[in-house]
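Researcher: Next sequence.
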Amino acid sequence: MRLRLIPNAKRVFWRSWTSRILIVGGFLTAAEAALPYLAGMDLISPEIFPLVTFGVVFAAFVARYILQESLYHDDE
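Model: Next structure:
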């Protein structure tokens, strides 16, 4: 099986909620990994941070199933 991008991959990347939410989730995951090294900074509690990250990633999962009309209309 050969993997190929969808024909409108660039448009989907820039306009889909899923892409944006997953980018935020990626940053949160990276911040979670760095959190032990930033012990003196209490921006968010280490007990709460994984829940926030989970919430963002779950939102991306839900957004994947919501119709995103901006992907189908040519109003650029």
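Model: The chain has three helices and no strands. The helical segments are 9-15, 17-34, 49-63.
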